[in-house]
Amino acid sequence: MRKLRKAYIGLIMAFLYAPIALLILYSFNASKSRAQWGGFTLRWYRELFADEAIMAALGTTLSVGLLSALIATVLGTAGAIALFQMKRRPRGIMMAVIKLPMLNSEVVTGVSLMLLYAMVHIQLGYATLLLSHVAFCVPYVVLSVMPKLRQLDPNIAEAAQDLGATPLQGFLRVILPDILPGVFSGFIMALTMSIDDFVVSFFTTGSGVSNLSITVYTMAKRGISPKINALSTLIFACVFVLLVGINLQDLRKDSKRVEKVRIPY
Amino acid sequence: MKKKNRALLVPFVLWAAIFIVLPLLMIVYYGVTVEVTPPYEEIVQADGSVAFALEDGAVTAERPQKETVFSLSNFRRMLEPTYLKLLGRSLKIAAITTGICLLLGYPVAMILSGRDFKRPALWLMLIILPMWMNFLLRTYAWMSILENSGILNSWIAALREAVPALDAWLTDRGVGRKIIFLYNENAVILGMVYNYLSFMIMPIYTVIVKIDRSLLEAAADLGASPTQSFLRVTLPYSLPGVLEGVTMVFVPAVTTFVISQLMGGGKVPLIGDVIQNQFGKANDWHFGATLSLLVMVVVLAFMGALQRIDREEEPQKEVRIL
To answer: What is the pLDDT of residues B175-228, one digit of tens each?
Structure first.
């Protein structure tokens, strides 16, 4: 039975990783068609880095990701603190509103933001892309900071104010250090959501600005290109190093508890 | 903290109003309106200038512009069989996907929460890792394997060359040189299962791992078979995780247009495709908004139904195990 269970996990792993493994393998294939193996080459990697459209898209993805995650973290943290201070009833309503974008499908979020920009006649482009990413990232930050605020001892903040700290000092020296893990995981979550997003970006960008997802979508619709294989390989390598790096310490300690794995979802 | 800090509250509420509430109201607004040009006739007046006569007899020098008027005609259009069929297919494919994800994912969550693996955290991380690669790239990976001149077909061709008997056998059965794997419902479902499987595994695992082991031991002590203790302990306790997983798979599956376009090649249009098309080629934002409203209602109704199940089936404080 035990072997059977292990074999099952093995099968699922194979299902998850086989496509990625093939993608990596064929990114080194000299022959352009996947019909045969034409020997080892780095040609597709060279072509990838020479492809201005892909490189520009990569730049957009990274800059929108970092900027929107940063803005969303500031806004979301401030929002969480503001919500935390509200009375129960209005806070409940606000929380429900904040959760709306998470409940709604991405298509609806994308379409709704696009209509908003159309109403105020903002031309779709980098600015609207960034604004939209901030919009769908903020809820995740709020929800990851909120629990940390609940754990705070209210007396400490009051003590800080009694001892003459300004509200800003009190926040920076007393509250922020305590909620920092929540703020940080909110930031990572926002960054991940932004980098991975396609649907909302698709509806809210324009005038030639496209991120990686949109570029891959356009290329994939046209047909297969070995350059995308190379791109996938590089991205997979980055993700692998990053995630293993983050979790390595915890894994060494080998905890059976899932809470120890940091999965910024 | 006790001191109310309006300096933070006001901008945040304002932000939420502009970027969450207002956009949704825009969908409603677009959904219940249409753009029409009032019917008119061009008339050339005595001095040679052109004027426009409206139906009510008024004559203006300016060409009548399109105007936005309240209308429920898009709701009527939405209920046409074409669109209802598309919605039906979307629901069907999403349901199948969710079912497959549940069947594949539940055992994974259960096995990993057991004692077979020394490092369940590591395995869990490995299951999530592919999800960190861009969603489009993951779908693209399957495309490059399954397309007509893709990896799988080239392997099959090589195998046929190597084994003539197999080639003859396949030819007898009318299997062509290139097997078409993509561009059908199954390909779309495969793409969805691959992309959403870990959304099912994660929440179920989080719940199962927290089940008190002593409950299972007690069940065994009291003579429950493994099947019985699964049905009476593990399953009811894991239900919240299952419902969460079902939501996380079903909602994106119902509304996607990416997977249906890439894996289905436009041959398996879903409701998401139609919405996207209204904002693209068809350029009918009003109808697109109406369809978005439909999708919103369907998704919210679905989640409401799940929540009811959750509340009704919640295990009581005192569990009757046997």
So the answer is: 887 888 999 999 999 999 999 999 999 999 999 988 888 888 888 888 888 888
Q: Could you tell me the CATH number of the domain that includes residue A170?
A: 1.10.3720.10
DSSP β-bridge partners for residue A101: none
Q: Domain total for chain A? A: 1
Q: Is residue A74 part of a domain?
A: yes
For the cut 60, the answer to whether the pLDDT of residue B25 exceeds it is yes
Closest residue of chain B to A175, computed from CA coordinates: B1
Contacts with A151 from chain B: Cβ below 8 Å = none
Q: Which of B5, B125, B255 sits opposite A247 (nearest CB)?
A: B125
Q: CA-to-CA distance for B314 and B243, rounded, in angstroms?
A: 12
Cα–Cα nearest to B252, from A179, A106, A23 = A106
- B263 part of contact set with chain A, CB < 8 Å: no
A190 band by pLDDT with thresholds 50, 70 and 90: very high
Q: By C-alpha distance, which of A139, A133, A71 is closest to A100?
A: A139
CA distances from B140 to A243, B95, B189 (A): 22, 23, 14
In a domain, A8, yes or no: no
- Span A104-110, mean pLDDT? 92
Give me the mean pLDDT over the B134-157 stretch.
88
Task: In whole angstroms, give the CA distance from residue B239 to residue B6.
Answer: 41
Question: Which B-chain residues 138-167 have CB contacts (< 8 A) with chain A?
Answer: 138-145, 147, 149-151, 154, 157
pLDDT band at B133 (very low <50, low <70, confident <90, very high): confident
Whether the pLDDT of residue A66 is over 90: the answer is yes
Question: At a CB cut-off of 8 Å and minimum separation 6, what does B307 contact?
Answer: B243
Helix (H, G, I), strand (E, B) or coil at A35: coil
CB contact under 8 A, A216 and B127: no
Would you give the end-to-end CA distance of chain A in angstroms? 33
Q: Which residues of B touch A263 (CB under 8 A)?
A: 124-125, 128, 202
Domain residues for the domain of A197 are 52-223
With residue A65 as reference, give the H or E element that holds it: helix A52-84
Chain A touched by B238 (CB under 8 Å): no
Residue A43 maps to a domain:
no
Q: Which of A258, A259, A260, A262 to mutate to test the interface with B (most CBs of B within 10 A)?
A: A258
Residue scoring higher pLDDT (B172 or B272)? B272
Q: Does B16 touch chain A (CB under 8 A)?
A: yes
* CB pair distance less than 8 Å for A108 and B136: no
User: What pLDDT shows up at residue A249?
Assistant: 62
Which structural domains are found in chain B, ordered by start?
A: 81-147+182-313 (1.10.3720.10)
As separate numbers, helices (DSSP H) first and strands (DSSP E) second, chain A gives 12, 0
Q: Name the β-bridge partners of B36.
A: B67
